[in-house]
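Researcher: For the annotation table, I need structure tokens for F-box domain-containing protein. Please keep the output clean. Sequence:
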Amino acid sequence: MKNSQVDLPYLPDELLLNCLVRVSRLYHPILSLVSKRFNSLVASLELYEIRKLVGKTESCLYLSLRFSSESDTRWFTLCQRPTRNPNPNPNPNSRWFTSCFRPHRISLTNHTMISVPTRNFTSPPSEVTRIAIGSNIFMIGVLNNGAFSSRIFFMDCRTHTLHKTPSMRTSQKKPFISVLDGKVYVVEGCKRPDYSNFIECFNQETQKWEHVPSPSVEIRARYVSSSLVLDGKLYLFGNKSLVYNPKENKWDVVGLEMPLRWTPTNFFSVVVDNVIYSFGKRRLVWYDSERRRWRFLKGLKKLPKLPRQCLCVRLVGYSGKIVVLWEKDVHDTDPNKKTIWCAEIAVERRNGRGVYGKIEWCDAVLTVPKSCSLLHFMAATV
């Protein structure tokens, strides 16, 4: 009896969705090219609801860029670059979209950044800070009059649509945001902050702002410049380093558990498995909390040389690993363009021998005009 082929176009949507939820989102841009029906299915909200139910959610990388000729931010996401190979056993009766599921038909070896097809999307003007929580990327923008918005905008990475939260009690001055226990904390970052409205917390589940007590007068800082979430606590850095424990609803001064004379940023510092990783002197480093000093991340001799300038580098935690992204000028081929590189690094802590990194992959993922500005790099869960 001859083997019969499954004719995918005539399968019910429910069955196709249950197949597609098991395919990594890295391949969705390829699947969307199969047919209009596939394009509709991989973009449907129902697909992501099923992924959540069957435990197939995953981290997806997003990059935001600003081009000099455009006022709005443009978004990109990481996917696999398809490379067509000849089919060793061509079947004239098979359909193209059926054969795309065969591993010998398409070789997926390279990574690339593709533009995100946003829907009904207008970026808030001059976004200054962003952070990802679950499937949403939250951002605060500056209005046309120069004031900071009292609302937080967020992009749903499942549908790539923009939404707004309810208004905060007041507009923060030079705010920055952090994520702790699934909630968004907005902190006033200017000099001599108003401690009556110093910090607010947005509960994504209830869609409401919650009260957070301010630090006591004895430990208040004159200014706050950055934050870091570590071991279930919110750390604030300025002329004083403070820590907020949400379980005890209590503020305190940071002790020796954090590095002195060091201010982390969301651009080139990241926490993976309660270890702080950062970038400095063209190398990746990690903070040894036992010895209270920075140490180089070993095992990365094959990683291309990173830029000298920190602003050309971004770090993000990604499924228990580190992803580093950096810019590199293209002098030889086109002096007016630059390449964006990306590398995924698995980390392993070896007792008494430090932390070692293993390069999972490293690719040039995007080429852009040299005037293009690198903004934010983050991972959302979809």
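Researcher: And a one-line annotation?
Model: The chain has three domains: 13-54, 58-81+107-118+259-377, 120-257.
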